[in-house]
């Protein structure tokens, strides 16, 4: 993400899965104009229908899955810095949908019209980078959208996630608590008395991730947090998140984040805190 606010629209006849596991240190709002999607978000799978919003919090692991007959959507992203002038109390209200237990909200036709009007105004403004006061315009529309959805979320029921297989839910919980250990597909499948072949298929079908992808995502997400908040050496951080080989850590970190650990650390330390 090159700026503190972005918005993108897309329409597809088919619903392929997102290529990679995914997380980021900014907020994401996903709105579905039409069609349907299956969305993996923080250990749950949601069926997202027309007129629904998905709220992806910072560092939530998420991925769209295969399924459904096409979709038309808008996605907008924004950083903490973009709303930096608001007080903690105001941000608590504005960002409440991202922190609720349900991550997907459906809206009726009237509410959809209001949301879509805001999104299309953003789209029109986004197309012309020369407009004066462009950032202020985005901020005003985003605040309207966040306030609108926050108020409704306090009253309305959110979409419940699709129940995950009991055994798989137990496995995911185990991985989330023990990812710094030397977990392998074989060791985890053996622990839960499942054949490695069946375990691999079940894990992919349930989460959209291959098992090694998921473990690496958990580890690198924690490594990023440590690089932001800890003064330890990179080799020490690699060991703390489960990598005994620094070369493997560096390669995996770059695959997940697009940059080397040292580059990430320097970039984070150069950004002024708000």
From TrEMBL:
<dbReference type="InterPro" id="IPR020449">
    <property type="entry name" value="Tscrpt_reg_AraC-type_HTH"/>
</dbReference>
<dbReference type="InterPro" id="IPR018062">
    <property type="entry name" value="HTH_AraC-typ_CS"/>
</dbReference>
<dbReference type="Pfam" id="PF02311">
    <property type="entry name" value="AraC_binding"/>
</dbReference>
<keyword id="KW-0804">Transcription</keyword>
<protein>
    <submittedName>
        <fullName>HTH-type transcriptional activator RhaS</fullName>
    </submittedName>
</protein>
<feature type="domain" description="HTH araC/xylS-type">
    <location>
        <begin position="169"/>
        <end position="267"/>
    </location>
</feature>
<keyword id="KW-0238">DNA-binding</keyword>
<dbReference type="InterPro" id="IPR003313">
    <property type="entry name" value="AraC-bd"/>
</dbReference>
<dbReference type="InterPro" id="IPR014710">
    <property type="entry name" value="RmlC-like_jellyroll"/>
</dbReference>
<dbReference type="InterPro" id="IPR018060">
    <property type="entry name" value="HTH_AraC"/>
</dbReference>
<dbReference type="InterPro" id="IPR009057">
    <property type="entry name" value="Homeodomain-like_sf"/>
</dbReference>
<keyword id="KW-0805">Transcription regulation</keyword>
<dbReference type="Pfam" id="PF12833">
    <property type="entry name" value="HTH_18"/>
</dbReference>
<dbReference type="InterPro" id="IPR037923">
    <property type="entry name" value="HTH-like"/>
</dbReference>
